[in-house]
């Protein structure tokens, strides 16, 4: 291709609608080459039938097909290390600039710095945009410029600074797709080319039904109410819907609890951005003095849903079968692992990272450290959920439990692996010794 082009790099924004970076690219004077890279630095850590890879692949194929059928264009798909891919693209095309939407995870920040440095050496501009959040990085901070460490004042500042006409202004990126490169011979690969096979676990569609949002606080704590959660997690994670669209729905239905949950997502994102060491270390350093038991056999029982505690086991079996677990149950199983079994929160965080369709590093780390008591605005160490009373309160008729443990009354169901009272006393003793 003799003319200069702009490359738009899709990552966590797999949509044409209301895509801020894509809009900026399409407004450029040069035709746009849309690009997606299956980053082998990430893929090499995943099982070959990972359902998230299947979901991403199918979504990218849908986008590719749409561009071919409606715009006589296509989407370039590569597999490899991003820097090497860009070296190849710079060699093949006359690239004016590369545009993408920002990612705030530590690996992504490092990767983008490396890509930006390389492109600069080639006299190619690298421009990034805010797309996956309403407020990013240092936009919501205390008056002294330091990040908030407690959610409520962060939320209050977030809401005080929020202006719907400004912060929810959608870009019309989908209206300018005629400005794409017309080339049907762009790179394309299959799942098998990357060493992956299609997973039989599917990412469910999300719902933004007004009834769900209006009744969110009344239904969200009960795992047996399947229509009580939106299933938005994976779609926000991979950007198949924009955060602005979701926020507009929350505000239109005037549900502040639903709205607050979306703000929690940004709270944890800014915590990870400002404190990247929390990927491996506790936010509160003294919690790293806890002497974890880390019994591998007990960890294996927890993973399989064989603890003998019905609600814990139902949650783990749901996770293993579907890649999803209800949020109320997530809090319980995390508390059980850290406090009943005294197993390091990092073990549980890593297992959730492997299994969750909606895995979001910042939220996963934030919530696991919340459960262990070691994170920002965390549950106090002496808050230890009783699995029995949690089941009585949130699944009184055992509808959720019976769905995931149909053999609950049979003799094959395991005995309780620990006594709640004894485990609680042991936990308090170990925590007190570490924190004194």
Automatic annotation (TrEMBL):
GO terms for biological process: nucleobase-containing compound metabolic process; response to light stimulus; response to stress. The keyword Flavoprotein applies. Residues 4-134 form the Photolyase/cryptochrome alpha/beta domain. Keywords: Chromophore, FAD, Flavoprotein. Binds 1 FAD per subunit. The record marks 292, 345, 368 as: Electron transfer via tryptophanyl radical. Its cofactor is (6R)-5,10-methylene-5,6,7,8-tetrahydrofolate; FAD. FAD binds at residues 216, 258, 261-268. Gene3D superfamilies: 1.25.40.80, DNA Cyclobutane Dipyrimidine Photolyase, subunit A, domain 3, HUPs. It comes from the Bacteria. The keyword Flavoprotein applies. GO terms for molecular function: deoxyribodipyrimidine photo-lyase activity; DNA binding; FAD binding. Belongs to the DNA photolyase family. This is Deoxyribodipyrimidine photo-lyase. The gene is phrB1.
């Amino acid at each position: 291709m003799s003319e200069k082009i702009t490359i738009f790099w899709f990552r966590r924004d797999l949509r044409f609608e209301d895509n801020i970076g894509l809009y900026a690219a399409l407004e450029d004077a040069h035709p746009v080459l849309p690009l997606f890279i299956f980053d082998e630095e990430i893929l090499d850590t995943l099982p070959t039938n990972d359902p998230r890879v299947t979901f991403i692949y199918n979504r990218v194929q849908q986008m590719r097909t749409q561009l071919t059928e409606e715009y006589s264009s296509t989407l370039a798909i590569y597999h490899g290390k991003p820097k090497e891919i860009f070296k190849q693209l710079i060699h093949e095309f006359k690239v004016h600039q590369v545009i993408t939407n920002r990612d705030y995870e530590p690996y992504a920040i490092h990767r983008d710095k490396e890509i930006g440095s390389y492109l600069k050496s080639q006299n190619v501009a690298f421009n990034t945009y805010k797309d996956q959040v309403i407020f990013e990085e240092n936009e919501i901070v205390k008056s002294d410029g330091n990040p908030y460490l407690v959610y409520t004042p962060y939320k209050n500042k977030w809401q005080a600074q929020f202006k719907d006409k400004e912060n929810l202004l959608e870009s019309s990126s989908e209206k300018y797709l005629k400005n794409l490169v017309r080339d049907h011979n762009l790179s394309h690969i299959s799942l098998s080319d990357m060493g992956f096979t299609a997973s039989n676990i599917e990412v469910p569609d999300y719902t933004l039904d007004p009834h769900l949002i209006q009744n969110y606080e009344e239904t969200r704590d009960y795992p047996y109410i399947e229509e009580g959660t939106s299933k938005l997690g994976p779609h926000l994670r991979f950007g198949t819907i924009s955060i602005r669209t979701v926020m507009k729905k929350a505000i239109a239905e005037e549900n502040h609890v639903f709205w607050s949950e979306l703000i929690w997502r940004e709270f944890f994102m800014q915590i990870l951005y400002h404190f990247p060491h929390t990927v491996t270390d506790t936010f509160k350093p003294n919690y790293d003095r806890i002497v974890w038991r880390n019994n591998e056999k007990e960890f294996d029982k927890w993973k399989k849903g064989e603890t003998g505690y019905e609600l814990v086991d139902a949650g783990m079996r749901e996770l293993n079968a579907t890649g999803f677990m209800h949020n109320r149950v997530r809090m319980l199983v995390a508390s059980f692992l850290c406090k009943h079994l005294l197993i390091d929160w990092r073990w549980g965080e890593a297992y959730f990272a492997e299994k969750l369709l909606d895995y979001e590093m910042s939220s996963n780390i934030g919530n696991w450290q919340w459960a262990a008591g070691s994170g920002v605005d965390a549950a106090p160490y002496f808050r230890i959920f009783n699995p029995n009373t949690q089941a009585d309160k949130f699944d009184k008729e055992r509808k959720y439990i019976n769905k995931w443990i149909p053999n609950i009354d049979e003799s094959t169901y395991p005995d309780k692996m620990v006594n709640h009272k004894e485990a609680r006393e042991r936990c308090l003793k170990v925590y007190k010794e570490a924190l004194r």
